[in-house]
Design goal:
The chain has helices at 3-9, 24-35, 54-63, 68-72, 83-92, 103-126, 141-148, 191-209, 217-222, 233-239; strands spanning 46-51, 75-82, 129-134, 154-164. 28% of the residues are buried. The radius of gyration is 19 Å and the shape is globular. It has a four-stranded antiparallel β-sheet, with helices on both faces. It is an alpha+beta fold and 246 residues long. The model has no long low-confidence stretch (mean pLDDT 97).
Amino acid sequence: MNETLRIQQAHRSIRDYKTAPISDEMLDQIIAAAHRAPTSMNAQEISLIVVREAATRAKIAECSGGQPWVIKAPVFITIVIDFHKTDLAVRKAGKTQIIHESMEGFGVAAVDAGIVLGTLITAAESLGLGSVPIGSIRRNPQGIIDLLGLPPLTFPLVGLCIGHIDLDSPQKPRLDINTFRHEERYDASGYPAAIETYDAALAHFWTEVVHREGQPWSEALASRFPSVYFPLVKPVAAMQGLLNDK
């Protein structure tokens, strides 16, 4: 196994960071790696907002529901869908952009944002740093938009804490890989048994490995998925011009 695969297969989310800053050299290397991540049609419709100011990180944490690791991590990166950038290019060519009004546009931008997020994580971990994605910036997207000065046709999709690891975290178990990898055709026949096994494995992880309360996977999903847990995403995205009506 090469070093890149070792790093990726050892991934775990880190929420405890030292107060030491990340050097400019390290941060530049991480951002440069993400800058080269692929985007559909070379649209490059993703922008990053790098926040190191403690006061700003505290406000992001507040918008995100009070997560303390957002405050403690020395760097917080917001990954932004940026159709403002592409709109300028389309206008320069004498055309009118409408892709930002479509489900296809939002979907492809979310895919590209995910590729950037994964690249940032691998780059940070290759330098011995820890990270954890923060989807809860979508809890109060307008607050994040105002705080970061985002223009119309943009949307803050996900954030990432990065820092020097203070307390490491054990790797959380996953569902059987056969629920993830399908050969030639989709096959869900093994799902019920795999979920039963995974619920037991995750319950053991919470009680015996990390020694704190935690739910089995099915119960955790059942506490979240019966509702839209960040209901402001759709109306705020619409106000930003990302209508999803085409």
